[in-house]
Amino acid sequence: MSESLKLIRGEERAEAPASSKPRRAFIKSYGCQMNVYDSERMGDILAVEGYDLADSAEAADLVLLNTCHIRERASEKVFSELGRLRALKEARGAEGRDMLIGVAGCVAQAEGREIMRRQGAVDLVVGPQSYHRLPDLLRRARKARVADTDFPAEDKFAKLPGLSEARIRQRGVSAFVTVQEGCDKFCTFCVVPYTRGAEFSRPVARVVADVVQLARAGVREVTLLGQNVNAYHGEDERHRTCSLGTLIRRLAEIPGIARLRYTTSHPADMDDDLITAHRDVPALMSYLHLPLQSGSDRVLAAMNRKHRAAQYLQIVDKVRAARPEIALSSDFIVGFPGESEADFEATLAMIRSVGYAGAFSFKYSPRPGTPGAERQDQIDEAVKDERLSRLQALLEEQRQAFNAACIGRTLDVLIQKKGRHLGQIAGRTPYLQAVHLDAPEGLIGHIVPVEIVAAGPNSLSGRRINQGHAAGECPT
Ligand code: 5AD
Ligand code: SF4
Questions:
Q1: Which of 165, 199, 221, 460 could tie 259 with a disulfide, CB 3.0–4.6 Å?
Q2: Is there a single domain that holds both residue 140 and residue 169?
Q3: pTM score
């Protein structure tokens, strides 16, 4: 499916006349946090190339869609957005002005050739592993349509421009850092191993250098990103392989870093080193996103998840023994081919026995080229709909119960920004809940104890407690 497109050339075109106005780029990100991070990095590359960021496609000379291929709906959105952009580009052309349209990310990787064929307005296709080559690709795209969906054997992050302190400050006190990319797990529903390629871990020294730079520019919280982040096995300065747990211990020592998180993890990679990091490292937040997908052993095996439901429960027990106050979240898929009512009920039973603070849940979407899509026992859409609504009702009940149980507790809140109303500020608890409270803006970047006074549907409200306690951890 994700055949590697070499650089392909279409019709030659005359180079657009150089304009004296600054160039403006609009980057639209779809899908996961890794895409959000990649979009930021593409923005950094474009800044070096002299582009300012625009707020809309209408205000831009270059539009990049950083796409997601994980479910069918995500891919479809890209083609409909491209239709809209084509009309915009034609209107521009009628006024004698130029506009470049690029497609990046996982749809570009998986369907680059198809995009070029179906949508003549697209000038540039670039896969997630080669966007560090954007400057060269843009130069070429001004002359002829161009696509690069190679998996180069080079560390893309090492080739990206360094971040300026001003840009880091603009993005706020919570930052993401990709430490691992790609996946070797091949769950039978998932396109990631095809679109993002084999697992790759960034060397420890580079991750440490990034986090030191972020901390110096005022970042207090870092989320380590990877498609399979706890499979991290980066090389350290002494050429030893370093696990995620060890990396977290190193990063926790960096002055200024008060909070660490990681996402997204796989149960089979929850090793003891990582679990004890939850016990020993106060900066590692007491919130773990650990996707289960299904609670049925039959479905887990069909999904190639490499663990059974009972093993998941054992991991949860171990993590809770290491960090009693930890809260869990998960991803779930309903209606995987062959899923019976009993299988689905096993998922509900697992949710009841684990108890989640939050979760993402999806109807199974057959993805071309994955083994799940080939199966003959696909589940009816109506059955998927019905199961999804039962599953989501249970998860929502658990989420609200978790939030309601926070009322009256004092939680440490990392203040991130001004609130919506005058005199209000907003931040996050260790459990990633949004909190707003009345307090001075000067607290942005600080971790303050906040008594939770109410729980709304999407956020908590709180009151600042003046008696201080050690910042960085939730006093439960
Ligand atoms: N259909 C539905 N959900 C999917 N996910 C991944 N692939 C599919 C698919 N084909 C979900 C999984 C994964 C999350 C990122 O997206 O739950 O953990
Ligand atoms: Fe996809 Fe995650 Fe499975 Fe890898 S471990 S194949 S990224 S669901």
A1: 221
A2: no
A3: 0.91
